[in-house]
Amino acid sequence: MIKVKTSIYISKDLWEKFRVYASKRGIEVSRLLEDIIRDEVLEDSLDSILLELAGVDIYEVDFEPIEVSGGIISDLVRVMRDEQSGSIPR
Questions:
Q1: Which of 8, 21, 57, 71 is disulfide-compatible with 89, CB 3.0–4.6 A?
Q2: Angle CA(54)–CA(56)–CA(57) in degrees, nearest 5?
């Protein structure tokens, strides 16, 4: 794979947070940025394929959220939410 060097303009604070985020995960900044870009391009490609297969210009994911009230499920949902919030860079 041929690599290219590029320049981007980004907030200094955001860049520092991104570098720390990558460092904590033991991933090179370039590799992490490349993975993020690849994921975005793949998602866009999948969206296009879904639209083409469905024969529509736009699709919508439709679901009814459920209310959880107490018990084991509530504990599980709380743990999952805590895990997700801890993985979001700040």
A1: 21
A2: 135
Say which amino acid occupies 16.
Answer: E
Among all chains, which residue has been given the structure tokens 């499920």? Answer: 73
Can you give the pTM of this predicted structure?
A: 0.52
Contact 74, 68 (CB under 8 A): yes
Assess contact for 16 and 22: CB atoms under 8 A.
no
Cα-Cα-Cα-Cα dihedral of 39, 87, 81, 72, to 10°? 100
Separation CA 67–CA 60 (nearest Å):
22
